[in-house]
Specification:
By secondary structure, the chain is mainly beta. Helices cover about 15% and strands about 35% of the residues. The protein contains four helices and 25 strands. The chain has helices spanning about 5-10, 15-25, 35, 40-45; strands spanning about 25, 30, 45, 50, 55-60, 65-70, 75, 80, 85-90, 95, 100, 105, 110-115, 120, 120-125, 140, 145, 150, 155, 160-165, 170, 175, 185, 190-195, 200-205. The strands form five sheets. It has a nine-stranded mixed sheet, with no helix packed on it. The radius of gyration is 18 Å and the shape is globular.
């Protein structure tokens, strides 16, 4: 991550910010230029035994933090993006085939995301109807996926959501609000259908 004072200086100078952004990011492809990715080993943190498959798109400029924990795996054809917020993945977690993860996102330990899951802490601004949406910038809200969560195929997790520990999100769900720990949720928008009752020591509806 860039030094805080340096980031502050750059952010307070629009012209300098534009020059540096253009040097780092390709304006058409909206991904880091190849000469930045050559040095990604310097600023991307990888834990012991972690794996990122070759086909993964790594939109990981040095604007924000990226870390992949010990023995965690990012499977083929996924996209990792920390251009607008930190992307932090814990230990023993698996990002499934064809996932898109856009920060700011924190994923805990022993988390499993199935195929074609979208987790995006980013939204495009649109309120000014006199200007094109793609000129209005973006807003972000942090997503937090706690330890020991299982997310099924084709799920969408929206910005600002927290999914609690040992929860399950059913395939095809759209998670629009927080899910408490030890819950099972399904649907669009996702609703809780079961939770674990520690008094009864069983899952209840």
């Amino acid at each position: 991550m860039m030094n805080f004072d340096l980031k502050k200086t750059i952010n307070n100078n629009p012209r300098l910010k534009k020059i540096i952004h253009r040097f780092i990011m390709n304006p058409v492809k909206t991904k880091p230029n190849w000469w930045i990715l050559i040095f990604s080993f310097v600023y991307l943190k990888r834990g012991k035994g972690s794996v990122i498959y070759r086909s993964v798109r790594k939109d990981l400029p040095p604007f924000y933090n990226f870390s992949l924990g010990r023995y965690s795996v990012v499977e083929s054809f996924s996209c990792l993006n920390n251009a607008v917020g930190d992307l932090l993945i814990g230990d023993y977690s698996r990002i499934g085939i064809g996932n898109t993860i856009i920060g700011p996102v924190t994923i805990g330990n022993h988390v499993n995301l199935a195929q074609n899951v979208v987790v995006s802490g980013l939204n495009h601004n649109f309120m000014d109807v006199k200007n094109n949406i793609d000129t209005q910038g973006v807003s972000t809200k942090h997503i937090n996926i706690d330890d020991d969560v299982w997310i099924g195929a084709n799920v969408v997790v929206l910005a600002g959501v927290t999914i609690g520990k040992h929860s399950i999100v059913g395939a095809g769900s759209v998670v629009t609000k927080d899910i408490p720990p030890y819950s099972i949720c399904v649907g669009n928008p996702a609703r809780i259908i079961k939770h674990y009752d520690f008094t009864l020591q069983k899952w209840v509806s």
